[in-house]
Design a protein that fits this description.
The structure holds two protein chains of two kinds.
Chain A: H1 2-5, H2 14-19, H3 21-41, H4 58-64, H5 67-98, H6 105-117, H7 120-130, H8 137-143, H9 160-185, H10 189-197, H11 202-213, H12 215-230, H13 234-239, H14 251-260, H15 265-296
Helix pairs in contact in A: 4-15, 5-9, 5-12, 6-9, 7-9, 9-12, 12-15, 14-15
Chain B: H1 4-31, H2 35-40, H3 53-60, H4 72-102, H5 108-118, H6 123-136, H7 143-167, H8 171-179, H9 184-195, H10 197-213, H11 216-221, H12 229-237, H13 246-267, H14 269-278
Helix pairs in contact in B: 1-13, 3-13, 4-7, 4-10, 4-12, 5-7, 7-10, 10-13, 10-14, 12-13
Classes of the chains: A mainly alpha, B mainly alpha.
């Protein structure tokens, strides 16, 4: 056995290596290679076709001088803060309510989570209809007699990004609730008993005992929400197409439009590299804390 | 039973549940009304006269650009995209996971780490290089090209899912099969595959809803006549020409959401397991 078992390092585990070719290609060519390619070409003045004609940081200077990009970043920040805060708070509150040993828990959970099964396009289109100024919520309230009622977020450029967040929260809080509920279920019953014996009020137990204990769950949830925020694209396309004017533009849409419509590839590459950078700012510290730190212990 | 605490608890839950159900209700109600009734009435009121005309129109006559054969085209495109993508992505990822769990070769973990890190890179960064790759192999704009793209982007999370599952299986099983002379594929097909059906179901749920709901890849890698359903829905609803037919739009929206909704309501708890795993995909 020993003779035939180790003919050559390369041929050891040959089947496993052959079977892993798609994974190796994806990791090296698409993920690592593709990312490096885009970053490299973001320093060129590629227009219709990618060309290696380096212009240094010109694309980035142009990017940060473009009003549409600045609005996109501002929108992303507002959208990010709103969806982060509200989905965490609402998600946690719903999970806490469902965790009170209630009846019909499965029914409630099914109802809160079903929007998550729908695509952002479906979500966006539905909320576009609900927020339609003539027929939607505003129209209905006005037809009831309150004629000065004003609730028209999708056509008001100063609040349109909040209107988009309403739909995003409807779609996404169910997921956060599920993650939080799983976290709450992981907490030992005895902690509750001990808190009750000590006469600590429920809200204090949640705030000062349970939530600190759920730190890992919160961190995972935070990473999930954050990486979803950067990608926001379909929802905006379906709800407002970036309008009114450019009031609800987001970075992902900027990248797409510059690459495939404006035929200004260099701008698209620079913008997508900025997106990559912003994700790295969130992910790297998290990965370091999560994986890097543990190895050292 | 009717303590103040319970009234508050159930009251809150019911109100929130109604809020979550409202869009679905409005969608259904609007799709069953005629346009004159929509213009006069209230979006929340039930239809006075039920009509299925908008559904027929959405399915077979609604226009996107020059094509006026309705959403049925997008539906069949989505089926032709989703089915092979789900099969291919799960086949690749399960073998990856199996190789990583049981046949680890030198460097395998490095590729795995790149794969997982890659899951967090915004798609926008990799879109254009993939366009070039697909163009080089002659698949840009075709359904097969999109199938490859879905298999690539499904790989990180699915590989992680399968690797963790196979790692948790008893090692003795694998050793015994090795002693009996079974090889890489023999063990995979005859032992691992039959024993891991639950995780395959989770993966299928995750992939069917994810791929059916995709918009970005559909719009980048296909042409108008091969657009998936989500892209076509967006084009129908947000087209600027013609009179807006809200009832047709809502019927089209329900039709597009139907497949993932059915998957959701049938799969129940497994769906929750799937998204808890899939959520890491970000």
């Amino acid at each position: 056995m020993s003779k035939s078992a180790r003919p050559n390092q390369l041929f050891r585990n040959l089947n496993a290596k052959v079977a892993s070719i798609p994974m190796v290609l994806t990791a090296l060519v698409v993920f690592a290679g593709g990312t490096a390619w885009t970053v490299l070409y973001s320093f060129t003045n590629s227009k219709l076709l990618p060309r290696l004609n380096f212009v240094g940081l010109d694309q980035y200077y142009r990017l940060w001088a473009t009003p549409r990009w600045l609005i996109s970043i501002e929108n992303l920040l507002i959208y990010g803060v709103v969806s982060l805060v509200f989905s965490l708070v609402i998600g946690f509150l719903l999970a806490a309510l469902l965790d009170q040993k209630i009846r019909f828990e499965d029914t409630f959970r099914t109802i809160f989570l079903y929007p998550f099964a729908l695509s952002f396009i479906v979500t966006g289109v539905v909320w576009q209809w609900l927020l339609n100024p003539d027929f939607g919520v505003q129209g209905v309230v006005r037809s009831l007699g309150w004629t000065s009622f004003d609730f028209n977020p999708l056509y008001n450029s100063s609040i349109v990004i909040y209107g988009i967040s309403i739909a995003a929260l409807w779609q996404g809080t169910g997921l956060i609730m599920c993650l939080m509920l799983a976290g709450l279920r992981g907490i030992d019953e005895d902690i509750w008993k001990a808190a009750r014996v000590d006469g600590i009020p429920m809200w204090k137990t949640y705030l000062f005992i349970i939530i600190p204990m759920m730190r890992p769950v919160f961190i995972t949830t935070l990473v999930i929400i954050a990486s979803g925020i950067v990608k926001v694209y379909d929802l905006v396309v379906a709800q407002t197409s970036g309008g009114p004017g450019i009031a609800s533009e987001v970075p992902a849409k900027y990248v797409y439009d510059y690459m495939f419509f404006a035929q200004n590839l260099g701008q698209g590459f620079a913008a997508s590299t900025m997106m990559l950078l912003s994700v790295m700012i969130v992910i790297v510290p998290w990965a370091y804390l999560e994986f890097g730190g543990r190895k050292r212990v | 039973m009717f303590s103040r605490r319970n009234i508050f608890l159930y009251g809150t839950l019911v109100v929130v549940a109604l809020y979550y159900l409202l869009p679905l209700y409005v969608m259904v109600v609007t799709s069953l009304k005629g346009m004159p009734e929509i213009r006069l009435g209230n979006i929340f009121s039930p239809p006075l006269e039920i009509t299925f005309e908008p559904w027929v129109k959405a399915w077979s006559q609604a226009c996107t650009g020059l094509n006026c054969d309705g959403l049925s085209r997008g539906f069949w495109n989505s089926v032709r995209i989703t089915v092979p993508s789900v099969i291919l992505s799960i086949a690749i990822a399960s073998v990856n996971g199996y190789a990583l769990a049981n046949w680890r070769f030198k460097g395998a973990d490095t590729f795995f780490v790149i794969l997982i890190v890659g899951a967090f890179i915004p798609y926008q960064v990799m879109i254009y290089p993939i366009v070039i790759i697909l163009r080089e192999i002659g698949l840009y704009g075709s359904l097969s090209g999109l199938v490859i793209v879905h298999s690539i982007f499904g790989m990180p999370i699915l590989t992680l899912l399968f690797r963790n599952y196979f790692t948790s299986m008893p090692e003795e099983l694998f050793r015994a099969a090795r002693v009996d002379g079974a090889g890489f594929w023999g063990i995979y097909l005859r032992i691992m595959l039959p024993m891991s059906l639950p995780i395959f179901v989770v993966a299928i749920i995750l992939q069917v809803t994810g791929i059916w709901n995709d918009f970005l890849f559909g719009v980048v890698y296909t042409r108008p006549d091969t657009y998936p359903m989500t892209v076509q829905l967006n084009n129908i609803v947000n087209s600027v020409q013609g009179v807006k037919e809200y009832n047709v739009n809502m019927a089209a929206t329900i039709l597009t959401g139907l497949v993932p909704l059915i998957v959701y309501f049938i799969s129940g708890k497994l769906f929750v397991r799937g998204i808890a795993a899939g959520a890491v995909k970000g």
